[in-house]
Amino acid sequence: MFRIGQGIDFHQLAAGRELWLGGVHIPHTKGAVGHSDADVLLHAICDALLGALSLGDIGHHFPDTDMKYKGIDSKVLLKECYRLIEEKGYSIVNIDSTLLLQAPKIKPYVEQMREAIAGILHLSIDDISIKATTTEQLSFIGREEGVVATANVLLKKD
Ligand code: MG
Predict the structure, then answer these.
(1) Which domain covers residue 105, as residue numbers?
(2) How many A from CA of 40 to the centre of ligand 1?
(3) Distance CA 152, CA 62 (A)
(4) Quick check: pTM over 0.70?
(5) Distance in Å, CA 60 to ligand 1 centroid
(6) How far is residue 137 from each of residues 21, 33, 90, 102, measured CA to CA in Å?
(7) Alpha-carbon separation of residue 149 from 15, 22, 40, 95, 98 (angstroms)
(8) Distance of CA 138 from the midpoint of ligand 1 (Å)
(9) Per-residue confidence band for 62, with pLDDT thresholds at 50, 70 and 90
(10) Alpha-carbon distance 88 to 62, whole Å?
(11) CATH of the domain at 119
């Protein structure tokens, strides 16, 4: 039995914040703003995993009003989402994701991101796809005011 999940996340970009994407720290003039480390890609993957099993969303499991999650490493959140789907007797077939951002170029970091995610989710990096696109200077993404990520996952019953 297979289940599909989809996730999307948005974060504002601002000077003076660190930029974490896919579990990797990326040196940049701006970083993502959020209650946690604001890793938009890991958040989209968390939501896709939760969504596949109708387990609600990341805001339900890790409320941004809870000081416990202030500044938290999103890899911890991803680990917890993995535990939840494992507990339900499912494993991950593959993940396909897309980052939408104008800058910086993330290609040099994609392999590191895939390795970080594969390690947490007990997958091969071949099961994790991370794509990226700019929006050709259009919208808040093009103005470098924000970053967006989408993710789709396929789960199978063990
Ligand atoms: Mg988020």
Answers:
(1) 2-157
(2) 5
(3) 20
(4) yes
(5) 12
(6) 20, 21, 40, 7
(7) 20, 10, 6, 13, 6
(8) 22
(9) very high
(10) 19
(11) 3.30.1330.50
